[in-house]
């Protein structure tokens, strides 16, 4: 899925991939925190406005 979000001073293009980790451990390269959550837990976290459409679609999949 691709999402474009327009902030007042910048436009963000996000690309979402469905992937499987086959080896190794995920590492934080750009963020301060990383964790696995279920779709039911999404509302317990604060996300950037650009993530809204992606999170809405993930929630509808009822994964996790």
At a glance:
By secondary structure, the protein is of the alpha+beta class.
Secondary structure blueprint with pairings:
Elements: E1 2-6, E2 11-15, H1 52-61
Antiparallel strand pairs: 1-2
Fraction of helical residues: 10-25%
Q: Average the pLDDT over all residues and give the rounded result.
A: 88
For the biggest sheet, the summary is:
2 strands, antiparallel
Instruction: Find the structural class using helix and strand composition.
Output: alpha+beta
Please count the beta strands (DSSP E, at least 2 residues each): 2
- What gap, in angstroms, lies between the N and C termini? 19 Å
Unreliable runs:
none
Q: Strands of the biggest beta sheet: in what spatial order?
A: 1-2
Shape: globular
Please provide a written account of the structure.
The structure is a single chain. The protein is 16% helix and 16% strand. A hairpin with a 4-residue loop joins strand 1 and strand 2. It is of the alpha+beta class and 64 residues long. The chain has one helix and two strands. Strands 1-2 form a two-stranded antiparallel sheet.
Question: Which terms summarize this structure?
Answer:
64 residues; alpha+beta; two-stranded antiparallel ribbon; 16% helix; 16% strand
